[in-house]
User: What shape does this take?
Amino acid sequence: MKIRRILSGIAAAVLMGAVVTGCGNTENETTAKNDGSETPVAEEKKDDTSAEKTLTLWSIATESDSFHTAYAEAIKDFEAEHDGVKIVHETFENESYKTKIKAAVAANELPDVFYTWAGGFSQSFVDSGKVLALDSYYDNYKDELSEAALANITYDGKIYGSTLVTPVSVMWYNQKIFNENNLSAPATWDEFINVCKTLKDAGVSPIATSAKDKWVLAMLHDGLTLKSVGPEKLQKTLLKQGGSYSDKDFLVSAEKIKELSDIGAFINGAAGLSNDEASAEFYQGRAAMYFTGSWMGGSIMTDCDDPTDFSVAPIPVVNSANAKITDFMGGGADSLMVAASTKDADLSAELAFEVTKGVSKYAYLSGAGIPAWKVNYDDSQVPALTKKVAEYANGATSFTLWFDTLLESEDANEYLALLQKLYLGSISPEEFQTEMAAQLEK
Assistant: This one.
């Protein structure tokens, strides 16, 4: 399906301008036009009849998402190489999409190609038979995308999707504020808690986070758990392969969240702040640290008055006997799958691979993502912050998918609910651990 023409087209494509804020909360479904702008889905679909072929793609790259421009550019490239083919790109807010995609699978109402998270999140989609295996199509891309990159989207030895980037959780921090308080990036828990107390004493909110968008708070908790438990024990426990959440090392990270709350390390009102609202507090210098994925680098470049005020570091180690500073939460999880119900399997499969390749490229060039695909283009203009995260990822000793991705869907939902209760103080760290252990024994 025109593979060679597509490769040359993408290699020649130019990068669009600045990207916008990561993980947005735009609730309206939208359609990406070729110029990168968005219009309501209903308006765009009126013109679909003029297209020879139309494929629908769902993603979470809303207009306020740092990957929005990368998707628009990748789609533009694909349409340019396929005369008479139109891609209708519908976007949804992160949290609401998780419910929508599950409902679409259950109702057999999937679009041709759709965004999803690898690991346990998509296991049921594959088990239901609603997703197309892509092994035969992958043969055209082996030289550019490794099998290792697809490990989390491979089930029972078959590839069911293509991955976009290799995101990792990190600690973003305002180095201007750190310098003003004679602080450096912490590498251990003791150093970290000292940083928080020093900032608090100086009248600075140490950590901006969102407990409303629970996944944001989970970025910190997941990272602290990894740095307490270690990658092997954490993965075995979450995958129910012999580990136990009753292990004392799992209690530590819950205790650390409470300790941070007790000393007032979190920004005021975090329970009611969305990710967009909380990250804005960080960008505007009203909080010194933000724990989230590598994608924030792109948003810092576009949403901060002076990006040089900011830097990035790994999440500190809690227990050096179990974990290293080079152990990271993350890895290849953001993926595109093809619905088994698509009317054109060949074209849809090609779309999934070509768009993921294009997004991998454009997101990296704009500073929003760490590429999962081979870098065979000039990356000299990649923002320094993104290159720094890429160096961390390249030197990682392990990757562990986030709890809400690695866990089965029901377990993930219960985990996020329990974490929110822990933050609000309605359950103790011990109760959190007990409830998590019980959930994972079901």
Residues 194 and 373 are 39 Å apart (CA to CA).
